[in-house]
Design brief:
Layout (H helix, E strand, L loop, with lengths): L1 H17 L7 E3 L1 H4 L27 E4 L8 E4 L7 E7 L2 E4 L1 H4 L7 E8 L8 E7 L10 E5 L5 E3 L12 E7 L8 E6 L26 E6 L2 E4 L14 E7 L8 E6 L6 E5 L5 E3 L1 H4 L3 E2 L5 E4 L8 E4 L7 H7 L5 H9 L5 E2 L3 E5 L5 E3 L1 H4 L7 E7 L8 E6 L8 H7 L2 H10 L3 H7 L6 E2 L1 E7 L2 E4 L9 E2 L1 E7 L8 E6 L5 E5 L7 E8 L11 E6 L3 E6 L3 E2 L3 E2 L4 E6 L3 E8 L4 E9 L2 E6 L5 E3 L13 E3 L31 E4 L8 E4 L8 E6 L2 E5 L11 E7 L8 E6 L14 E5 L5 E4 L10 E8 L8 E8 L10 E8 L2 E5 L9 E8 L8 E9 L2 E6 L2 E4 L11 E2 L2 E5 L8 E5 L12 E5 L8 E8 L2 E4 L3 H7 L10 H5 L3 H4 L2 H5 L2 E4 ...
Parallel strand pairs: 18-21, 33-41
Antiparallel strand pairs: 1-32, 2-3, 3-4, 4-5, 6-7, 7-8, 8-9, 10-11, 11-12, 12-13, 14-15, 15-16, 16-17, 19-20, 20-22, 22-23, 24-25, 25-27, 26-29, 27-28, 30-31, 31-32, 33-38, 34-35, 34-39, 36-37, 39-40, 40-42, 43-75, 44-45, 45-46, 46-47, 48-49, 49-50, 50-51, 52-53, 53-54, 54-55, 56-57, 57-58, ...
Length: about 1100
Amino acid sequence: MKKIKNHITLVIIFLLFNSCDDSKLFSLESDSSGVIFENKLDYTEEFNPYTYRNFYNGGGVALGDINKDGLIDIYLTGNIVGNKMFLNKGNFQFEDITEVSGLACPNVWSTGATFADINGDGLLDLYVCKSGAPGGENRHNELFINNGDLTFSEESKKYNLDILGLSVHAAFFDYDKDGDLDCYILNNSIRSIGGYDLIEDQREIADPEGQGNKLLENIDGKFVDVTQSAGIYSSKIGFGLGITLSDYNNDGWTDLFISNDFFEKDYLYINNKDGTFSEESENFFQSLSLGSMGADSSDLDNDLLTDLIVTEMLPKSLKRKKTKAIYESWDKYSLANSKGYYHQFPRNVLQRNYGPTGFLEIGRYSGVSATDWSWASMIFDMDNDGLRDVFIANGIYKDLLDRDYLAYMANTERIRNMIKTEEEVIKKLIDIMPSKAIKNIAYKNNGEFNFTEFSDAWGFDLPTFSNGMSYGDLDNDGDLDIVINNVNMPALVYKNNINVDENKSISFELIGREKNKNAVGSKIIIKYGNNKQSMIENFPSRGFQSSIPNRLHFGVGNVKEIDSAIIYWPNNKVSYHANLETNKTHEIKQEESDYEYFDIANYSNLNLKLNEIELFNFKHNENKFIDFNKERLLTQMYSNEGPALAKGDVNNDGIIDFFIGGAKGESSAMFVSKNNQYEKIIDPFSKKSAAEDVVAEFFDSDNDGDMDLYVGSGGKAFSMYNQNLNDRLYINDGKGKFVLSTDSFEFESPISTGSVAIDDYNNDGLLDLFIGERFNPDLYGIPVSGYLFENKGGNKFVKVEQKALKELGLIKSAGWTNLNNDEFPDLIVAGEWMPIKIFINENGVLKDYTKEFGLSNSNGMWNKINIIDIDKDGDMDILAGNLGTNNFFSPNMKLYINDFDKNGFYEQILCEKIGNSYFPILDKDDLINQMPSLKKQLFYYKDYSDASIDKIFNPDLLNESTVLDIKTLESAIYVNNNGKFNKISLPSEINYSPVFDIINYQPSDKNITKLIFGGNQYLVKPQFGRHDSSKGWIIDVKKDEDKLSFTNLKSLNIEGQIRKFELIYLGKEKILITGINNKDVKFYKIK
């Protein structure tokens, strides 16, 4: 404890020394401002983090103008210490009026606080939530009614708001639009975490002791519990830490997002407009945070749709990840998902609102997914540039999840021994628990969901133990200041020093009607400058245990006047206000506004409305093989790359027919047109149903004028010797009946096929095949080869040795085209852990010209290439689908492959580059389980966190290893400029998820090429999280002068892991056929 006290003393000295530093955007003003508060927490043997799990959750911050003098006042909650109320005297000076106001809440554990005008008299009242140990006369939540003379009267019982429980926060809003404020109270479950199993439907059972979350309807000034009838969960597994209000589906009614800690999923309650809510998180989100904490919602890209950030505890640096982060196994994650706990992952999430498509989780793309132990996330414009930035309050006073502490200091055996021989065992365990302050994080919004950390540059370089925080213009100078509550260190008040003459703002104070005097639930849209717009909603309760003022702030850059402000009032009416001066607060009263009724459901034009039709029925049923049981160190599975999908007129009736590849244990099928419908044919394909069919191509193998079929089998569910990996050629009898040819191809051994490309490589009039090997099914990573088979006629193919095709990489896509204008087609090949490879066909000999074509540094995780003349200049360009940038991978990662422990089994060790060294990203437990011989060397997690791969293994072993690297993760277009391919970046949305297929077509406008992209990969270890932020994309590409322009990007709103597209014409209509892993094949009309 002495070291901790010394640390706090040093922090206070630091604050005093730096309190007037206005050289950065924010300067600390805590001491000089008069805001003196410290949420001091001392644990005892009886009351501590072991006996009360929320011991270090900290206190909140509420900001509001309690005396209507135009100055924002500050309220800070304490846990063991009393709360404090600071009156704003102007010029950044505050007076402690706690005693006179009666707002101390002494001798009780306070948590969240929010200002709201509960009784509709125009004055802000204060609601304070209570938690902690039971007992005490004011242990219940307290409502302090504002008397108008800087004093408050506690009247919670009068209003039925004297709730008793582990309350975290409350939000007041008019959910039923009857003109008064209702209340949602967030209660953390009183039960211990260890007492639960992952049981289905637990959330449906209300806590019989009444300790769950509560929705209270305001009926004639009394708050009545309507939780059950309104459809709100109040079970024992509600571990809520955040309430975030917004109109998430843009229908004009307030919805609720509840962030839940531990194993329970987060809730999204959509307002049904009839006094009830429906929990629809699984319909709106693809992935959620696992241990969700604070959250905030606002419009991050100015598209007038509200986005959402939810914080978790994933450390920012790889070093801290290795010592602080704990990950679920694949089995536990799968079990939780099967029991209704959905897809939860240990990281922050940024949910981009994409209108009717729902939300796309892009936290990893934006770089905000890992910020350490993060409590509050707040979204607001810190630099008045018109884009809202992100502030995250960080820190935990005692690091409960330090893995060395859990494994070696607080393990079961040691605790038993301590109980036998020592006193105050729990207190001693906490004494030795690690404690390290970390800085809060500020992210500057660069637009398009790109963020740059500006913590140090903006003045947030102080390590803290921060919890609740809030923001508001404390000195009325036109920018937003910050107040932060900390554990065991003084509260922090930051003054914003932006030059408001250059970066201006405009603020609004709305005066509502009836009992909602602050117009809570309103939405304002402003339009200004060169077609700029911005939107904000009036919901004070935000972040973690905190609330912001009712004054709504917009940064607008260097604009003197905004063109218009459109106010959507809580009663679903709208008013318009034009030509408003900036650097000014505008007070607008609802009853004085000219308004009209409106329909707010006007989404941004982000989605293409597809008309789904049905040509035939085929559901791909993926097998349940778990790759991680075969290769423990894989980051994802590779056994779900089907279905294969091919089209061709097999019976020469002028109508396109289809082949769909089945998963292992499922028969593939042909769908042949007959009598204006499709007949399903499984013979002879059902005889090979044990195979996993991932590639299929129709072509005329024997030059008899009909379409034969080549089927490539792959996957990792087989050993490298399994005959079910053998590809197959089916011969068409000319009438659409197929027979398996058993002697057309001879492979030296089975291969897992990744791609097939067909062309007449030697110009003999017969179509030849390139077959790309996907991987060794027993060992992912070792580069495998491509094979060229020459068609000798009569359905006989002979392998042609091509030295250049040996050990290319992990091949996923290939195509033939003529790159040098000679008589022979050339070959382009792409795959994982390899560059896009160019092979020039020199009279039948393929030679590697990758370097000459400028692609030697294109190493990526390529899934698909499509070869077209995108810029219409007469040569062929490459559309390339990569892994994308919304994942844990980063350029310059390396994969080391070797039998590192010399036990006869090879391992893959994926490493991240830090400085000039490479560090394994694997969890230490996974690495030790695979190679137990490393246990002594890497005994402590800290040892592992400090160890680069060259410190773990000797140089000779690394030198003999296969080493692969990544240089780019972006899906992109590579434009051919006189024999050199130049990379053109695609719109960022394309890189939200892996691209598995790309098709193109020509619309009526011949200057435009339409591109369609599809992908996703769900079977990723929980440590890294699945790739699910695409629902298919369509975009127009046009050449403007010498550049390609991209316009009209839309989401296709197709759910699932898209693996293959085909496009056909039925009459005058284009039909998009979509092969989706483990789902039905889909058909859509498309323009």
